[in-house]
Amino acid sequence: MRALSAALVAIGLLLPANWPAQATEPVDLELVLAVDSSASVDYTEFNLQLQGLTLAFEDPELASAIAAGPIGAIAVTLVEWSSSERQEVSIPWTVIRTGEDARAFAERIRRAPRMVITGATSLSSAILFAAGMFDANAYEGTRHVIDLSGDGYNNQGTALSIARELVLDRGVTINALAIENQVLGLGDYFEQSLIGGFGSFMIRADDYEDYLGQIRRKLLREIQPVPIS
DSSP class of residue 117? Predict the structure, then answer.
């Protein structure tokens, strides 16, 4: 109970108090890109994450997937995370409708500096922070998705099971990309303990070089409508 109370307080602090009413713009998807910036990620590995995202948003196939949605637009933001109190918004919420929009967003990723340097691996705090961001924007998405990439187990902050339950209770989907350069079997842990929600899935990357192609595959799957069996 003590852990649950602490988690409720944590997510409460992340949500805007008395957020003013504002017009919302409809989009097919609100997507939080949460990239690992903890101590296990050196500068080369961090830059490979940004390079992978850059290449994905430069890909015409991704722009076509966005345009093919019922609304033809997504809202996306980029977040860095590490320890329980270390999350930074690298690129604020941005609407992408066209290939030009996607390439402009890719250029912002390419130029983005590293804002979180070292720290523990708090997956739980990362998803709580990301979930709070859906309330602090001017968009109304058909789907709310957290796209988290990481290379280690949750080792700080609220228990991952509690944080995950709080996030899923809000109708948010958690997808993950497990970078298994240091922890073999990390994908199994992500699949069992992290991902969840409507249409959730996990993808593995053998290392950060493999991440370059896997994040493109993951984004294409996230942007496309979730198949209903």
Answer: -
Domain at 33-223, CATH homologous superfamily: von Willebrand factor, type A domain (3.40.50.410)
Look up the pTM and report it.
Answer: 0.90
Give 64-122 pLDDT, tens digit per residue: 999 999 999 999 999 999 999 999 999 999 999 999 999 999 999 999 999 999 999 99
The Cα 163–Cα 168 span in angstroms is 9
The dihedral of CA 139, 223, 109, 113: what is its sign? Answer: positive
Q: What is the per-residue pLDDT across 36-47, written as a single tens digit (0 to 9) for each?
A: 999 999 999 999
d(CA 122, CA 156): 5
**Cβ atoms < 10 Å from Cβ of 70:** 9
Tokens of 132: 């709070």
